Amino acid sequence: MKEVRLTHFFENKWGTYTTDLFYPPEEQNKIHPAIVFTHGLWAQKEWYNWIAEYLASQGYLTFLFTVPSRKCIDPQQWSDGIKSAIDYLLSGNNSLYKIIHPGKIGVMGHSMGGLGTLRAGSEDSRIKCIVGLAPAILPEHFPISKDIFDISIPTQLQIGSKDGIIPPENVKEFFINLQSKNKSFIEIEGGNHMRFLDKTTISTIGEYFTRLGLLGRQLKDGRAEITFEEQHNISSKGFMEWFNHYLKP
Length: 249
Prior knowledge:
Order of helices and strands: EEEHEHEHEHEHEHEEH
Helix content: 25-40%
CATH topology: Rossmann fold
CATH class: Alpha Beta
Low-confidence stretches: none
């Protein structure tokens, strides 16, 4: 099955977001649950095509976007983008609203995008389910509001045990204090931060990240003990079961 990929644009106060839309070609006229996915700091939507292609192959309309300023360190740019993406998908200004089930929208993000999904999930009642991949739980830099801890919708968090950018213990502590009655925590043994991205992307830009600093810290990921394929398989099994349970009952 070859997924269809279409490019769209939407805007909000932060600027113009470029997007890619994935869905199976033979299902273009069916009503789909939808997933909005957002990337991490300095990253871009193309670095996560494996996630979009997999979700589309499972019948989900998947909408990825790149934020206007990829080096901005304000998570609100990501959470506002998620809410604006849902506005765009459900608006009458394009034909997408005809093939999206408005009551079955999930959000998913990596790193800064993962933190953005948590913020958006606490602010937008249209979101029914959340998956955060190594969310940027760094309270010393990004204050965590009480509203995020009060999230009531189903929330899954994933983190690699060798993540050197987002401390796994931060994500564990956040998960313990999360109020949602439907929550899941997956620690990928031997996984790290960057192996949530496409393998081809890492081979091109991996060294770039080790030379950059973030908030006084060098971005140096931990050494993974499993392959890209193994981390992708564990991650996708987790988020696919989660989305299927809550968006495809």
